[in-house]
Amino acid sequence: MYLELRHLRSFLAIDETGSLARAAERLHLTQSALSHQVKALENYYGTPLFLRSTKPLRLTPAGRKLLELARHVLPGVEQVEGELQRVARGRAGRLHISIECHACFEWLLPLLDRYREQWPEVEVDIRLGVSFDPIPALQNGTLDLVISSDPVAGNDLVFEPLFAYQALLVLARGHKLTKKDRVEAGDLADQTLITYPVERKRLEVFSRFLQPAGVEPAFVRQVELTAIILQLVAGRRGVAVLPDWVVREPVRQQRLAVRALGASGLFGTLYAAVRSLDRSVAYMDAFIRLARDAAGSGNGVVTG
Amino acid sequence: MYLELRHLRSFLAIDETGSLARAAERLHLTQSALSHQVKALENYYGTPLFLRSTKPLRLTPAGRKLLELARHVLPGVEQVEGELQRVARGRAGRLHISIECHACFEWLLPLLDRYREQWPEVEVDIRLGVSFDPIPALQNGTLDLVISSDPVAGNDLVFEPLFAYQALLVLARGHKLTKKDRVEAGDLADQTLITYPVERKRLEVFSRFLQPAGVEPAFVRQVELTAIILQLVAGRRGVAVLPDWVVREPVRQQRLAVRALGASGLFGTLYAAVRSLDRSVAYMDAFIRLARDAAGSGNGVVTG
DNA sequence: GATACATAATGAATACGTTTCATCATTATT
DNA sequence: AATAATGATGAAACGTATTCATTATGTATC
Prior knowledge:
The structure is a homodimer.
Chain A: H1 5-17, H2 20-27, H3 31-45, E1 50-51, E2 58-59, H4 61-88, E3 93-99, H5 105-118, E4 122-126, H6 134-139, E5 145-148, E6 157-172, E7 182-183, E8 192-195, H7 204-213, E9 219-222, H8 226-234, E10 239-243, H9 244-252, E11 256-261, E12 266-275, H10 282-296
Parallel strand pairs in A: 3-4, 3-5, 7-11, 8-9, 8-10
Antiparallel strand pairs in A: 1-2, 5-12, 6-10, 6-11, 6-12
The structure holds a DNA duplex.
């Protein structure tokens, strides 16, 4: 275990220039250095690598094996070095995102389309496998960014606020609760509540609205896709609590009605959590800015 | 251009052991050395390669690129190093052979079959492209061994005698020249001579027999394959001059007759020419021994 | 939450190996 | 045969990877 890339680079140069002297020039070394280097290798392997008796220096079969190795290895090395340079400049890198809130797909997917165009060298992906416990995954490097609505302490992470939202009760047109301006927890006791299929503690309806009031809905139905939830609500199969940005459009088209939750409404803020180290990386910063813009262009707070 | 294989080997060890301390042990280094090494790389590329905040040390995406490079590169390096070790021990290598004498295929091909079995790691090949001027090709490394019947000076090459042979005039049974015990050059003046399609100076009939006597055959016909030449001679289309080992069998079966050339017969010796450097290499020596054995087991001199 | 343990980071000193320098030997070219 | 050009060689210089000794940090354990 002695061979180094230096040797392979020398071999390539010697072969391409056909002489130690010219190769040395190209490598910014002296002819002597190369001569010593080759000799050391020949010594180490116990077999000649060059035929010295000919004038355009020629390789022995053993030497040719090293040359082939150089040709096989060095391009890959150069490519990776180039990539690392771009990573250092923040042009390239990995952006594996996890979302705690199911509804975020709504604005995240179109955003990623635009992002990919501007940052083609960033490997963007949404990782659903770790969505149950994303913060440790972010800390240990499995993830690079987490969309979350509750910041946690820890100085190795930063939570960048993206935009505020309001959780709204979504109702079919003419639903009896549309008669009330503000809906209280008790109003849901006789309702079917449609939620995403995740733990209750991760659903704000429960953690911040129903559980504090000790209310349990008549029935809870779990549905994966936002579009289906909206269909079911419109079809009077139940009610749902969703962030404002999801229901803005159907409400505008008068396909659905919404009501604020509680006396003052249920508000929250969406954050992008990243490792402190990564915060200043160009492609990270760009993503956060883009996400904030996404809010500005239509996901404003609906004040009920 | 700073990365070295050492760094890749370190990366692999660190990733596989999950800690600098254990990796250092495996690499016969201190933990400190590895720490410095990693830090130098991070410094050089301007980007972190490991996440320090976690206990099983984890790679950043940039670090993972280096690890992938290591996984891609190191197996190839190890393999080539292994091959070079075997080359040094004379177990592996290249044996590109050129034959000056066309008739040598007769004993060379079966010999190579046996040789390949015993030396599977040697790349054996017969190179016909350089047969017109094989000695310089041997000197500059294009060839590794030349079967030749005339040694030339030069201390970078050695000519190892393989076996002696006699050039014999091959005749059809009952041909008029079979009446003579010894055939002189003049006897061929009215004959059709069948030769291999090579320059006259490389044909011993001409260079050592006809030209010294100033005799030209009535007609010269060039044929590539030995078997065809023998057929044509048997069919009375002409006569040929071939080494004894080629005609031993047809003569024994009384399908052809042979006569010595000149008063004392035309004898020669076949040599294996190799670079002096290669002479002691195990697989070269083995080939030469095998070729000599081939002579002993049937290619003895026919004394006319 | 404090303590002990393991592991990594750091700075200075050392040791090692590569490179240079100066020179000689060899090989092509005229 | 003479002369460039190129490669080989040995000793010295240089740079840098490694070690040593120590501190800092983080992880388990009580």
